[in-house]
Automatic annotation (TrEMBL):
GO biological process: regulation of DNA-templated transcription
4-aspartylphosphate: residues carrying this PTM: 51
GO molecular function: phosphorelay response regulator activity; transcription cis-regulatory region binding
Protein name: DNA-binding response OmpR family regulator
Any one annotated GO CC term: protein-DNA complex
Keywords: DNA-binding, Phosphoprotein
OmpR/PhoB-type domain boundaries: 124-217
Residue ranges the UniProt entry marks as DNA-binding: 124-217
InterPro entries to which the protein is assigned, alphabetical: CheY-like_superfamily, OmpR/PhoB-type_DNA-bd, Sig_transdc_resp-reg_receiver, WalR-like, WH-like_DNA-bd_sf
Keyword Cell membrane on entry: no
PANTHER family to which the protein is assigned, alphabetical: REGULATOR OF RPOS, TRANSCRIPTIONAL REGULATORY PROTEIN CUTR
Response regulatory domain location: 2-116
Protein backbone atom coordinates (compact mmCIF):
# COMPACT_ATOMS: atom_id res chain seq x y z
CA UNK A 1 0.00 0.00 0.00
CA UNK A 2 1.33 3.44 -0.92
CA UNK A 3 0.30 6.56 1.00
CA UNK A 4 0.94 10.27 0.49
CA UNK A 5 0.91 12.52 3.56
CA UNK A 6 0.28 16.20 2.82
CA UNK A 7 0.74 18.01 6.13
CA UNK A 8 2.48 21.35 6.77
CA UNK A 9 3.37 20.53 10.38
CA UNK A 10 6.65 18.80 9.53
CA UNK A 11 7.15 17.03 12.86
CA UNK A 12 3.61 15.60 12.75
CA UNK A 13 4.03 14.58 9.12
CA UNK A 14 7.32 12.77 9.79
CA UNK A 15 5.94 11.08 12.91
CA UNK A 16 2.84 9.82 11.11
CA UNK A 17 4.95 8.67 8.16
CA UNK A 18 7.29 6.71 10.44
CA UNK A 19 4.33 5.07 12.15
CA UNK A 20 2.69 4.07 8.86
CA UNK A 21 5.98 2.65 7.61
CA UNK A 22 6.14 0.48 10.72
CA UNK A 23 2.71 -0.77 9.63
CA UNK A 24 4.25 -1.92 6.36
CA UNK A 25 3.12 0.97 4.15
CA UNK A 26 5.20 2.88 1.60
CA UNK A 27 4.88 6.56 2.52
CA UNK A 28 5.80 9.84 0.82
CA UNK A 29 5.56 13.24 2.54
CA UNK A 30 4.89 16.76 1.21
CA UNK A 31 4.45 19.95 3.20
CA UNK A 32 2.24 22.13 0.99
CA UNK A 33 -0.71 21.92 -1.37
CA UNK A 34 1.13 22.52 -4.64
CA UNK A 35 3.58 19.73 -3.86
CA UNK A 36 0.66 17.42 -3.01
CA UNK A 37 -0.89 17.96 -6.44
CA UNK A 38 2.45 17.51 -8.19
CA UNK A 39 3.28 14.31 -6.30
CA UNK A 40 -0.19 12.81 -6.84
CA UNK A 41 0.09 13.45 -10.57
CA UNK A 42 3.48 11.72 -10.71
CA UNK A 43 2.72 8.65 -8.57
CA UNK A 44 -0.18 6.34 -7.92
CA UNK A 45 -1.33 6.31 -4.30
CA UNK A 46 -3.92 4.18 -2.55
CA UNK A 47 -4.62 6.84 0.09
CA UNK A 48 -3.77 10.51 0.48
CA UNK A 49 -3.78 11.85 4.05
CA UNK A 50 -4.54 15.51 3.41
CA UNK A 51 -4.36 18.35 5.91
CA UNK A 52 -7.18 20.74 5.09
CA UNK A 53 -5.24 23.87 6.13
CA UNK A 54 -2.24 23.51 3.83
CA UNK A 55 -0.24 26.60 2.85
CA UNK A 56 -0.16 27.71 -0.76
CA UNK A 57 -2.95 25.63 -2.29
CA UNK A 58 -5.64 25.01 0.34
CA UNK A 59 -6.52 21.40 1.14
CA UNK A 60 -10.03 21.87 -0.25
CA UNK A 61 -8.57 22.99 -3.58
CA UNK A 62 -6.11 20.09 -3.57
CA UNK A 63 -9.03 17.72 -3.10
CA UNK A 64 -10.99 19.37 -5.91
CA UNK A 65 -7.97 19.09 -8.20
CA UNK A 66 -7.54 15.39 -7.44
CA UNK A 67 -11.20 14.67 -8.09
CA UNK A 68 -11.15 16.76 -11.26
CA UNK A 69 -8.14 14.84 -12.56
CA UNK A 70 -9.84 11.50 -11.89
CA UNK A 71 -7.22 10.45 -9.37
CA UNK A 72 -8.25 7.04 -7.96
CA UNK A 73 -6.62 7.64 -4.56
CA UNK A 74 -8.91 7.84 -1.55
CA UNK A 75 -8.58 11.04 0.50
CA UNK A 76 -8.54 11.16 4.29
CA UNK A 77 -8.84 14.81 5.27
CA UNK A 78 -7.28 16.01 8.52
CA UNK A 79 -8.26 19.24 10.24
CA UNK A 80 -8.17 20.99 13.59
CA UNK A 81 -11.79 22.04 13.01
CA UNK A 82 -14.29 19.36 13.96
CA UNK A 83 -17.70 21.00 13.52
CA UNK A 84 -20.41 19.35 11.43
CA UNK A 85 -20.18 22.18 8.88
CA UNK A 86 -16.45 21.59 8.47
CA UNK A 87 -16.98 17.88 7.93
CA UNK A 88 -19.78 18.49 5.43
CA UNK A 89 -17.59 20.93 3.51
CA UNK A 90 -14.62 18.58 3.48
CA UNK A 91 -16.67 15.66 2.24
CA UNK A 92 -18.42 17.94 -0.22
CA UNK A 93 -15.18 18.81 -2.05
CA UNK A 94 -14.40 15.13 -2.59
CA UNK A 95 -12.79 13.75 0.58
CA UNK A 96 -13.67 10.13 1.33
CA UNK A 97 -13.23 10.39 5.09
CA UNK A 98 -12.58 13.04 7.71
CA UNK A 99 -10.50 12.91 10.90
CA UNK A 100 -10.22 15.73 13.43
CA UNK A 101 -6.97 16.62 15.18
CA UNK A 102 -5.77 15.54 17.64
CA UNK A 103 -6.37 11.91 16.68
CA UNK A 104 -5.38 8.50 17.95
CA UNK A 105 -2.76 6.94 15.69
CA UNK A 106 -4.53 3.55 15.82
CA UNK A 107 -7.67 5.19 14.43
CA UNK A 108 -5.69 6.82 11.63
CA UNK A 109 -4.21 3.46 10.66
CA UNK A 110 -7.63 1.80 10.69
CA UNK A 111 -9.12 4.53 8.50
CA UNK A 112 -6.21 4.43 6.05
CA UNK A 113 -6.55 0.65 5.70
CA UNK A 114 -10.32 0.91 5.25
CA UNK A 115 -9.91 3.52 2.52
CA UNK A 116 -7.22 1.47 0.79
CA UNK A 117 -9.63 -1.46 0.56
CA UNK A 118 -12.07 0.83 -1.23
CA UNK A 119 -9.39 2.01 -3.66
CA UNK A 120 -9.23 -1.38 -5.36
CA UNK A 121 -11.53 -4.27 -6.22
CA UNK A 122 -12.90 -5.88 -3.08
CA UNK A 123 -10.58 -8.49 -1.61
CA UNK A 124 -11.34 -11.10 1.05
CA UNK A 125 -10.21 -10.17 4.58
CA UNK A 126 -7.66 -13.02 4.48
CA UNK A 127 -5.75 -13.87 1.29
CA UNK A 128 -5.37 -17.62 0.81
CA UNK A 129 -3.47 -19.68 -1.75
CA UNK A 130 -3.27 -23.38 -0.95
CA UNK A 131 -1.72 -23.70 2.50
CA UNK A 132 -0.57 -20.07 2.48
CA UNK A 133 -2.61 -17.52 4.45
CA UNK A 134 -1.96 -13.78 4.67
CA UNK A 135 -3.99 -11.63 7.06
CA UNK A 136 -3.47 -7.92 6.19
CA UNK A 137 -5.19 -6.62 9.33
CA UNK A 138 -3.26 -8.83 11.76
CA UNK A 139 -0.06 -8.53 9.68
CA UNK A 140 0.50 -12.28 9.82
CA UNK A 141 1.49 -14.90 7.24
CA UNK A 142 1.33 -18.64 7.79
CA UNK A 143 2.12 -21.62 5.61
CA UNK A 144 0.84 -25.04 6.58
CA UNK A 145 -0.01 -23.53 9.96
CA UNK A 146 3.54 -22.27 10.56
CA UNK A 147 3.91 -18.54 11.09
CA UNK A 148 6.49 -16.86 8.87
CA UNK A 149 8.61 -13.91 9.97
CA UNK A 150 8.55 -11.51 7.01
CA UNK A 151 10.03 -8.04 6.75
CA UNK A 152 7.59 -5.19 5.92
CA UNK A 153 8.71 -5.18 2.26
CA UNK A 154 8.47 -8.97 1.96
CA UNK A 155 4.96 -8.79 3.43
CA UNK A 156 3.98 -6.01 1.02
CA UNK A 157 5.29 -7.87 -2.03
CA UNK A 158 3.53 -11.09 -1.03
CA UNK A 159 0.28 -9.21 -0.40
CA UNK A 160 0.45 -7.61 -3.86
CA UNK A 161 1.15 -10.95 -5.55
CA UNK A 162 -1.69 -12.69 -3.73
CA UNK A 163 -4.08 -9.81 -4.43
CA UNK A 164 -3.29 -10.15 -8.16
CA UNK A 165 -4.99 -13.55 -8.14
CA UNK A 166 -2.46 -15.31 -10.34
CA UNK A 167 -1.90 -12.41 -12.73
CA UNK A 168 1.65 -11.29 -13.46
CA UNK A 169 2.90 -8.30 -11.46
CA UNK A 170 5.90 -6.53 -12.96
CA UNK A 171 8.95 -5.50 -10.96
CA UNK A 172 8.08 -1.89 -11.78
CA UNK A 173 4.59 -2.32 -10.30
CA UNK A 174 6.01 -3.90 -7.16
CA UNK A 175 8.52 -1.08 -6.80
CA UNK A 176 5.79 1.53 -7.25
CA UNK A 177 3.33 -0.05 -4.83
CA UNK A 178 5.62 -1.33 -2.05
CA UNK A 179 8.43 1.25 -1.94
CA UNK A 180 8.41 5.02 -1.52
CA UNK A 181 9.81 7.79 -3.73
CA UNK A 182 13.36 7.25 -2.48
CA UNK A 183 13.60 3.77 -3.99
CA UNK A 184 16.15 3.58 -6.81
CA UNK A 185 14.42 2.08 -9.88
CA UNK A 186 17.78 0.84 -11.19
CA UNK A 187 18.65 -1.29 -8.18
CA UNK A 188 17.99 -5.00 -7.71
CA UNK A 189 15.88 -4.37 -4.61
CA UNK A 190 12.74 -6.07 -5.96
CA UNK A 191 14.70 -9.10 -7.17
CA UNK A 192 16.50 -9.40 -3.84
CA UNK A 193 13.27 -9.07 -1.84
CA UNK A 194 11.51 -11.70 -3.95
CA UNK A 195 14.50 -14.03 -3.53
CA UNK A 196 14.39 -13.68 0.27
CA UNK A 197 10.63 -14.16 0.23
CA UNK A 198 10.95 -17.36 -1.78
CA UNK A 199 13.37 -18.80 0.78
CA UNK A 200 11.06 -17.97 3.66
CA UNK A 201 8.01 -19.43 1.92
CA UNK A 202 9.82 -22.74 1.43
CA UNK A 203 8.83 -25.68 -0.76
CA UNK A 204 7.04 -26.32 -2.95
CA UNK A 205 7.85 -22.96 -4.57
CA UNK A 206 4.96 -20.51 -4.85
CA UNK A 207 6.40 -17.50 -6.70
CA UNK A 208 7.06 -17.93 -10.41
CA UNK A 209 9.31 -15.61 -12.40
CA UNK A 210 7.82 -14.81 -15.80
CA UNK A 211 10.71 -13.79 -18.09
CA UNK A 212 10.52 -10.17 -19.31
CA UNK A 213 7.23 -9.73 -17.46
CA UNK A 214 7.47 -10.06 -13.68
CA UNK A 215 6.26 -12.42 -10.96
CA UNK A 216 3.10 -14.31 -10.09
CA UNK A 217 1.78 -16.71 -7.49
Amino acid sequence: MRVLIAEDHEELARTVAAGLRREGMAVDVVLDGEAAIDRASANRYDVIVLDRDLPGVHGDDVCRALVGAGDPARVLMLTAAATIDDKVTGLGVGADDYLAKPFAFAELVARVRALARRAQPALPPVLVHGDLRLDPAARTVTRAGRRLALSPKEFAVLELLLAAGGAVVSAEQLLERAWDEFADPFTQTVKVTVSRLRRKLGDPPLIETVPQAGYRI
